[in-house]
Amino acid sequence: MNRKTFLKNSAILGAGLGLGGFFPYKQVLGAAQTRITILHTNDTHARIEPFSNSAPRYAGMGGVARRATLIRQLRAENPDSLLLDAGDVFQGTPYFNKFNGALDFEVMSKMGYDAVTIGNHEFDNEVRGFEEVMDKARFPFVSTNYDFGTTRMGLRVHKFLIRQVAGVKIGIFGLGVDFENLVLPHLHRGVTYLDPVEVAADTTAHLKGYHRCDMVICLSHIGYRYNDNRVSDRVVAQQVDGIDLIIGGHTHTFMPEPELFEKPDGSRTWVSQVGFAGIVLGRLDFYFDRGRQIASVRNHNYPVTDGSTDSGTYAELISLISVDGGAAGV
User: Which of 221, 226, 227, 258 is the most buried (most CB within 10 A)?
Assistant: First the structure.
């Protein structure tokens, strides 16, 4: 992509595409001892290849090989990292029509995702459609306010996860959007939606209380904000204490920097979302002091462009697609 095209896309996406911010928690930042990097995506929607160079919007942006290269580079910079996704891996390109999500799960496994939540489009081929390809994912799914009942899907989806990174105990849970007027009943048969605010409050209290997590992350596919009474990430951030970070999805919102919510009890919640189609990779660096308390936060959004790939990564990922167009191992 040439400089003119890149600047045009940057203007479309907003000023924060490739810029970062610094947000201190404490006056004395020298006390920070540990840095943990959170890399995140959402609503990738089967965007295996970049947008074409002639596309009216986001020309030449995205593509899994480019994203994989960026991820590898950033992990090399700080191995104490988590790679997370806020759902809607499925639907959006002919790759989904052909492979039903299996290829996406294979590619994301190659990238080394640490956790992925469930979006509404994960039900596009019914519950059994997800079940047929879920074993291609060599990473855990997490969804807390969907009750999977006796479905096989429930065998693969965790209510929450706990990860130790650089001595910091991190709890991760997921929230999904209401099915009503969005997902037809037969598509989610056997799976029930539960109130996300109530579930988030109970789960966060459990993670920080019983499990004594130092940090709690919510992978949310309920949407950033609405002009009606629907529950959103902003509502959860305002009403639930103890969540340190909400990585959002569903509304395809390009946020130049995370929004900070400060509570009366002194707790803080950051909310971030990076659009859709994998054309932006989000990064948040959390700095912890000796007591494993958050001292400061930095953010940086990376545009996924043709300058962020290499031939080795491309060859590795493209090898998942056989000559006849079938996903490897499918």
Answer: 221
Contact 296, 287 (CB under 8 A): yes
Between CA 106 and CA 316 the distance in angstroms is 12
pLDDT for 3 = 37
The CATH homologous superfamily to which domain 32-318 belongs is Metallo-dependent phosphatases (3.60.21.10)
Give yes or no for a contact between 157 and 115, defined as CB atoms under 8 angstroms apart: no
Backbone angles phi, psi at 254, to 5 degrees: -90, 110
The per-residue pLDDT for 315 is 65
Query: Which residues, in sequence order, are CB contacts of 222 under 8 Å at separation 6+?
Result: 175, 176, 177, 178, 196, 230, 231, 232, 233, 236, 248, 250
Residue 85: HSE in the Cβ half-sphere, 13 Å Cα cutoff:
31
pLDDT of 308: 63
Give the global pTM. 0.90
Round to whole Å and give the CA distance between 198 and 63: 37
Tell me the pLDDT tens digit for each residue of 274-318: 999 999 999 999 999 999 999 999 999 999 987 666 656 666 666
Alpha helix locations (H) across the chain? 3-13, 64-77, 94-99, 102-111, 126-133, 153-156, 196-209, 233-239, 311-318
The candidate with the shortest Cα–Cα distance to 122, out of 84, 158, 90, is: 90
Residue 98 tokens read as 């052909």
Residue type present at position 88: D
3-state secondary structure of 14: coil
Structure tokens given for 83 = 């790679």
**CB neighbour list of residue 263: distance below 8 Å, 6 or more residues apart:** 241, 269
Which residue ranges make up each domain of the chain?
A: 32-318
Cα 195 to Cα 218, 230, 231, 232, 270: the distances in Å are 15, 11, 9, 12, 21
> If you write DSSP's letter for every residue of 200-228 in order, what string do you get?
HHHHHHHHHHTS--SEEEEEEES-S--SS
